[in-house]
Amino acid sequence: MNIDELCKTANAMVQKGKGILAADESTGTIKKRFDSIGAESTPDSRRDWREMLFRTEPAMQDSISGVILFDETLRQSAVDGTPLVELIRSAGAIPGIKVDMGAQDMAGFTGEKITAGLDGLRHRMKEYYDLGARFAKWRAVIEIDANRPSAACVTANCHALARYAAICQEASIVPIVEPEVLMDGAHDLERCYEVTQWTLQHLYMELFMHGVVLEGTVLKPNMVISGKKCINRATVEAVAEATVKCLRYSVPAAVPGIAFLSGGQSDIEATAHLNAMNTGANLPWHLTFSYGRALQAAPLAAWGGKPENHDATQAAFNHRAKMNGLATRGEWNDSMEG
């Protein structure tokens, strides 16, 4: 473990003005997104899509601190033979890798999930480091309703996140720990707050017990937000206030930064919430983004799977990356969206 390297990388990932592009969709997930625009999903088309994003200027240089990759992408090269990892590095961003094997049904707990992937992880981490990854991501899925999550679900997933984080740091790879309380369902803001705080507090207890160096980690949580089916959804200001309060009660100041997932929010909604949290706040951590759909939906629609839409695709990505970069400084407003 190289603690200095871990801390340097973690701080670079959450620097003000920049955030993380989550381009780690599994083959199945990206096929669904390509299907939505009528594009075929093949190794080459997936490469072409991601290469377009990684070559986008000035987004990659000015607004993206790191890119989470799927295993396939980490091993791919651009059309001209340049490894995609090198495209990311040359833009000044840090390559990362998704290492979990997905959420599976949790035995004995109907409707709840446990994330797989710990078996063989130590061996894979060494290989990923050699391939150029300097951070990793592991996502735990926490279902929420009036009766869920169970204590068993929260405990099992936080324990797995801590084991994963310790293995990452052993390999000098920064762990992004991602306990996602899902925004599906009809729960209100207060219920989301309750479950998110419980989950985060349990997570940090497990990380402490496993000897994880918090200064060399990044937290990727959900925002405290109403469920998609909630009748009276909370305002932007209420979401920002509740999220910051929850973090203050749950996340140690030693953590260098928090990179929120968008969790199914619309592009502008995710930007507005992040901006509100960074407006006038005096916090011990940097608050930034680690968005997938909220960065990629607009460029994907502009692309449509057609090579002639290359410039429009990059323009859409430039815009969304810039908007979210401004939100990390509390400098965004909706008039900038055009």
Could you give the distance between the termini?
47 Å
Give start-end ranges of low-pLDDT stretches. none
Oligomer: single chain
Question: Total number of helical segments?
Answer: 13
CATH architecture group name: Alpha-Beta Barrel
Q: Using only CA atoms, what is the Rg? A: 19 Å
Do you know the CATH topology?
A: TIM Barrel
Tell how many strands the DSSP assignment holds. Answer: 10
The main β sheet shows up as: 8 strands, parallel
- Helix amount, in percent? 40-55%
Strand order in the sheet with the most strands: 8-7-6-3-2-1-10-9
Topology:
Elements (H helix, E strand, L loop, with lengths): L2 H11 L5 E5 L3 H10 L6 H12 L4 H4 L1 E6 L1 H4 L9 H7 L3 E5 L4 E3 L7 E3 L5 H10 L4 E8 L8 H20 L3 E8 L7 H21 L8 E2 L16 H15 L6 E4 L6 H11 L8 E6 L1 H11 L6 H18 L11
Parallel strand pairs: 1-2, 1-10, 2-3, 3-6, 6-7, 7-8, 9-10
Antiparallel strand pairs: 4-5
